[in-house]
């Protein structure tokens, strides 16, 4: 609220937030955060002790239900490790969730899905800065990835047994340096071309928004060259 000029100080923000029903603040890394001013607001009579109790109570109820105050031995999740988290059952469920979350905007001539049995003898080209760069595949608030579990588009297609050629065209999402000659060579020899474009954390993230939806750098040029 301070950043949007709804209030002028952290004290005003704390008072307005508590009065509005807010009971949780995200101010990671800030030693002097908004809710540190609650004692002052309480002393000044801007908020009441009963109001604070009402705000805090559901937080502790939730923490109790989550087992945060139980002895570790009572927590069934304490014994879990990667052998469980990355078990075949869990990985298959993750794959199912990923497949079902795709948004397909257009499917001309029923081109998709690509099936391994249909790719025999086909030459595939996978191009673009997102084609084989695991680092750029994760967005804001993603967990720390385990490299052995990451499947880039290139790696996934190669597992189908297809004849896959690859070039990034540009090595990172900003795409400041673009190699058109290499892209045209790889695409020109292919029967099927997959172009992997986007933004990623290098270009946009929380508190680093963009004023337009244009593809960054030379990515649009890369796309047009591949289509041409």
TrEMBL record:
Residues 103-226 form the Glycoside hydrolase family 3 C-terminal domain. Keywords: Glycosidase, Hydrolase. InterPro entries: BXL (IPR044993), GH (IPR017853), Glyco_hydro_3_C (IPR002772), Glyco_hydro_3_C_sf (IPR036881), Glyco_hydro_3_N_sf (IPR036962). One of its GO terms (biological process) is xylan catabolic process. The keyword Ribosomal protein does not apply. This is XYL2 arabinofuranosidase. The gene is Xyl2. The keyword ATP-binding does not apply. One of its GO terms (molecular function) is xylan 1,4-beta-xylosidase activity.
């Amino acid at each position: 609220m301070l950043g949007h000029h709804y209030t002028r100080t952290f004290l005003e923000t704390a008072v307005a937030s508590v009065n509005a029903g807010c009971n949780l603040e995200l101010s990671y890394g800030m030693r002097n955060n908004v809710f540190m001013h609650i004692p002052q607001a309480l002393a000044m009579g801007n908020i009441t002790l009963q109001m604070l109790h009402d705000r805090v109570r559901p937080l502790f109820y939730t923490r109790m239900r989550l087992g945060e105050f139980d002895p570790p031995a009572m927590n069934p999740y304490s014994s879990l490790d990667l052998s469980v988290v990355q078990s075949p059952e869990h990985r298959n469920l993750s794959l199912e969730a990923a497949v079902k979350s795709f948004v397909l905007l257009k499917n001309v001539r029923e081109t998709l899905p690509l099936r391994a049995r249909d790719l025999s003898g086909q030459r595939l080209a996978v191009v673009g800065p997102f084609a084989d760069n695991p680092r750029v595949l994760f967005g804001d608030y993603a967990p720390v990835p385990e490299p052995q579990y990451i499947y880039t588009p290139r790696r996934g297609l190669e597992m189908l047994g297809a004849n896959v050629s690859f070039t990034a065209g540009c090595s990172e999402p900003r795409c400041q340096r673009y190699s058109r000659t290499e892209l045209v060579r790889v695409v020109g020899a292919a029967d099927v071309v997959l172009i992997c474009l986007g933004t990623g954390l290098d270009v946009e993230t929380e508190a680093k928004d963009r004023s337009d939806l244009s593809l960054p750098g030379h990515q649009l040029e890369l796309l047009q060259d591949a289509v041409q």
